[in-house]
């Protein structure tokens, strides 16, 4: 079957509307399309119509916004397991921070105590040196030597009176018996 092709020519005032079909070599003029007249709307009806259309647009717009917001909230909503995990991590982090702050406070306290003890130590060493110097100046070593040699009859030992022994590992010496004589 042959394809039909329509050629449209418009008629308005000085122009004409014509529809031609291309089935044969003869052109036939088609009937003019009928105009459909629409009733004239009053101003109030046009305003009402415009408001209704605006309201429908707003309703559609808000429905789309609600849908987008709802999908966004669902996508960003955390499950109970995620919330529990995040809460547990936060509690652990809070405990770790508290522990570190406590340790830092304890270390600061120890440093302060150490500083005060060092100051006390320096004071005690200074006092001890001063007292040792005073004691050294008051002792007359020559008088002690003269008293020991002249009055008590003491003298330095000779080599035959010196006995050597092996010291023990614990660093202290206890004399339980008499010192053994040198075995030759």
Lay out the secondary structure.
Layout: E1 6-11, E2 16-21, H1 43-76, H2 80-138, H3 141-151
Antiparallel strand pairs: 1-2
Task: From the structure above, extract its key features.
single chain, mainly alpha, 3 helices, 2 strands, 57% helix
Notes on the structure:
With 184 residues, the protein is mainly alpha-helical. It is 57% helix and 7% strand. The protein has helices at residues 43-76, 80-138, 141-151; strands at 6-11, 16-21. The chain has a two-stranded antiparallel sheet with strand order 1-2. Strand 1 and strand 2 (16-21) form a beta hairpin. The radius of gyration is 60 Å and the shape is rod-shaped. The model is unreliable at 1-19 (pLDDT under 50).
Q: Please identify the oligomeric state.
A: single chain
The helix content is: 55-70%
Structural class: mainly alpha
Gross morphology: rod-shaped
Distance between the termini: 149 Å
- pLDDT averaged residue by residue: 79
The number of E-state strands comes to 2
Q: Provide the β-strand percentage band.
A: 5-15%
- The number of distinct helices, counting runs of at least 4 residues, comes to 3
N-to-C series of helices and strands: EEHHH
How can the largest sheet be summarized?
Answer: 2 strands, antiparallel
- Stretches with pLDDT under 50, minimum 5 residues: 1-19
Computed CA radius of gyration, to the nearest angstrom: 60 Å
Strand numbers in spatial order across the main sheet: 1-2
């Amino acid at each position: 079957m042959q394809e039909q092709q329509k050629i449209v020519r418009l008629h308005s005032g000085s122009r004409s509307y014509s529809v031609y079909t291309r089935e044969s070599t003869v052109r036939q003029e088609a009937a003019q399309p009928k105009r459909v007249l629409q009733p004239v709307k009053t101003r109030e009806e046009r305003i009402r119509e415009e408001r209704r259309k605006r309201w429908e647009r707003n309703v559609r717009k808000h429905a789309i916004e609600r849908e987008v917001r709802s999908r966004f909230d669902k996508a960003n909503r955390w499950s109970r397991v995620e919330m529990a995990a995040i809460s547990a991590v936060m509690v652990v982090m809070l405990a770790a921070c508290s522990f570190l702050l406590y340790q830092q406070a304890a270390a600061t306290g120890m440093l302060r105590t150490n500083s005060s003890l060092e100051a006390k130590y320096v004071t005690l060493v200074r006092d001890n040196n001063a007292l040792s110097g005073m004691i050294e100046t008051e002792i007359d070593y020559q008088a002690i030597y003269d008293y020991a040699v002249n009055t008590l009859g003491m003298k330095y030992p000779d080599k035959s009176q010196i006995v050597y022994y092996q010291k023990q590992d614990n660093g202290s010496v206890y004399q339980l018996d008499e010192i053994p004589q040198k075995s030759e």
